[in-house]
Amino acid sequence: MGFALFHYTLFVLLASILASATCLSAYLVSRKRTMLFAFAGFLFYFFDVAWVFQDDFFSGATVGLGEAYALVMSLALVVTGCGFLTSFWLLLCDYLGEERRALKVVPAMVFVVGSVAVLLLAPAGDGRSFAFYFMRELYLFWMLAYAGVRFLRVKDQAERGRLRRHRWLYVLLWVLGLMVVLEDALVFLLPDPILFGPRAYAPERNFSENILMMACAFFACRDAFRALSLRFERPPMHEGGRQETLIDNNLLLYGKRHRLSDRECEVLRYLLLGKDNQNIASAMHLALSTVKVHVHNILQKTGQPNRQALVQDFWKTS
Q1: What is the pTM of this model?
Q2: pLDDT of residue 238
Q3: DSSP symbols for 233-283
Q4: Computed from CA positions of residues 174, 74, 111, 35, in that sequence, does the dihedral angle turn out positive or negative?
Q5: Which of 96, 98, 193, 251 falls between 20 and 30 A from 151, CA-CA?
């Protein structure tokens, strides 16, 4: 079992650092802050797993250090846990357009204070271990609950369509988050703890948490590879503003999916910004009849009956 756990740990470490590097590469070519936050999150998680790995396989070197060493390592896990969770919280805030600085900072502060309070005030034992790791799940559930409330409160149909694209990932994170809590409860809270499989060797680990992070890594890498390949084919257009940034981030993929030409993508961009044909013609220095032809071709290629349906389809499927 130790042999399998060793190579499993290497896989999680490798996947975390590869996801981090891929997201950093995507950020450097696209300047999407979500990719920068994802880079930081997976990098922190790499160190989080590495320090648990150290305890698993090098415990002999720490014999005799006692409670002092355990406290230092627990505080290190507070730092890494706060690092990767807060990075993903900031990613979520950026994606949802949340600008309130206090709301971005307070969850991290609550996590740190709560985790340290558990370490210092709770009596030693399995109950303290469960409470310590449960702070992570609370942070995750806060993020999921916040995202759910934001979705329910959004009235703009285009924005709802954009958010609805991630509904299956949202459900998956809820399921895996509950599995993390269940796994910790089976190990730490039962009178006769169930130590199953590799957790008999490493009860501090949570394999559901690893699976959750690997799922996040898969989706992050998918988006990062998409950004890298599209930016290689065609550089993005940027004029500033959150709405324009969101359009630019999705326009290349949408255009490629429906085989729109570069000129048609440029016309589509103005359509998504609410410009009429005359304004588009002026901005692009084209004849009005030419713009009408481009608009007609875009509607045909995308299979949409009118502009309103085109805009809704863009945010639903980009």
Answers
A1: 0.77
A2: 47
A3: HSPPP--SSHHHHHHHHHHHHHHHHTT--HHHHHHHHHHHTT--HHHHHHH
A4: negative
A5: 251
